[in-house]
Design a protein that fits this description.
Elements lengths: L9 E7 L2 H7 L8 H7 L4 H10 L3 E6 L9 H21 L4 E3 L1 E2 L5 H13 L6 E4 L13 H10 L3 E4 L5 H12 L11 H15 L2 H4 L5 E3 L6 H12 L9 H8 E4 L6 H11 L4 E2 L9 H10 L4 H16 L2
Parallel strand pairs: 1-2, 2-3, 4-5, 5-6, 6-7, 7-8, 8-9
Helix pairs in contact: 4-5, 5-6
């Protein structure tokens, strides 16, 4: 398998649902079609068939939002441990087609750090994914820093993925329009604002000074931040804060994927701001179909070297595949 140009394709943000987690925490099945549910629960024939049809060789599997971030402290660690074990077993059935990101019990940060280490050293996962807020809290707060300290020690990335905005934000920003335009607080805008805010807070928190080798992944073409970079950096440097170097810190510590954002102008802007070494291909399956992503990337006019980096080379290097 490969694209019609012969390239190996690794897709980095491809989701599934764990039946035990959904049964325990709920997962909004009423809002999902039967076909969507079938795909979310499948780590086998259906998924591989759609990968083959589109020319995708490997998926990095991660649990759909809100994953472990919705789990209460008294059940989170055991629930995530079982879920990661089940994902590892499913990956072992098709090790040439799948790899995994761990789910973490972030409501108990020390346990989350331990589960990250177990998932890497015992289960062979390639990093972890954190989805949205934990009990209304952003993860730049120092209570959560043990997770990032462990990620740096293990030299694995943390993928910061969207989930629902805080209820107060939903009420203030989106409530008027949710009925007629339900995606406005999700992928259309709410997810982007929440996740971009998380990334900005991480830079301002001093986390990357404390953990200088920490690596973070953002999906959806960087949640608008690559295109906003100059203005954010310039504004933060205004008198009294000249030492702030947002642009440098972000560019050094963040990697970007194309998940669910198949725009050539956006890709080129991100490449110009971040460099081709920081971009990786992703689809956001099954919430987004594989074919549009692959058909779009076939049309992108960039060098063969940069194509190869984005489709597989950067992921191989970052995730040690």
């Amino acid at each position: 398998m490969a694209t019609n140009k012969g390239e190996y394709v690794i897709a980095l943000e491809e989701h599934y649902w764990d039946k035990e987690l959904i049964a325990t925490l709920g997962g909004g099945e009423a809002t999902r079609s039967g076909k969507m549910m079938e795909r979310l629960y499948d780590i086998g024939e259906i998924r591989i068939g759609e990968m083959d049809a589109a020319g995708i060789d490997m998926q990095l599997l991660s649990h759909g939002a809100p994953s472990g971030q919705k789990a209460a402290p008294d059940i989170a660690a055991d629930l995530m441990r079982g879920m990661n074990d089940r994902l590892a077993a499913a990956i072992a059935e098709h090790p040439d087609r799948f790899a995994g990101f761990a789910a973490l019990p972030t409501s108990v940060p020390e346990a989350a750090a331990d589960e990250l280490e177990r998932s890497i050293t015992e289960l062979g996962f390639k990093g972890a994914m954190i989805c949205g807020l934990t009990d209304g809290r952003f993860h730049d707060e120092e209570d959560f820093w043990p997770i990032f300290a462990r990620a740096e020690k293990l030299d694995v990335p943390i993928y910061m993925h969207p989930s629902f905005p805080d209820d107060r934000i939903i009420d203030a920003y989106y409530k008027k329009y949710i009925k007629d335009f339900p995606m406005v607080m999700r992928a259309a805008w709410g997810y982007t604002v929440e996740t971009a805010t998380q990334a900005i807070r991480m830079v301002l928190s001093g986390m990357f000074e404390e953990y200088p080798n920490l690596k973070i992944i953002l999906g959806h073409m960087g949640e608008t931040l690559p295109y906003q970079m100059w203005r954010i950096d310039q504004a933060l440097k205004r008198p009294g804060h000249e030492s702030v170097d947002f642009r440098k810190t972000f560019s050094e510590h963040f990697w970007i994927t194309t998940s669910g954002h198949f725009s050539t102008p956006a890709l080129l802007t991100t490449m110009m701001e971040m460099g081709s070494d920081k971009l990786m291909f992703a689809v956001d399956w099954p919430f987004v179909a594989n074919e549009p992503a692959m058909e779009w990337f076939e049309t992108v006019q960039i060098s063969s070297v940069d194509r190869n980096k984005i489709l597989n080379g950067n992921a191989r290097a970052l995730l040690k595949l």
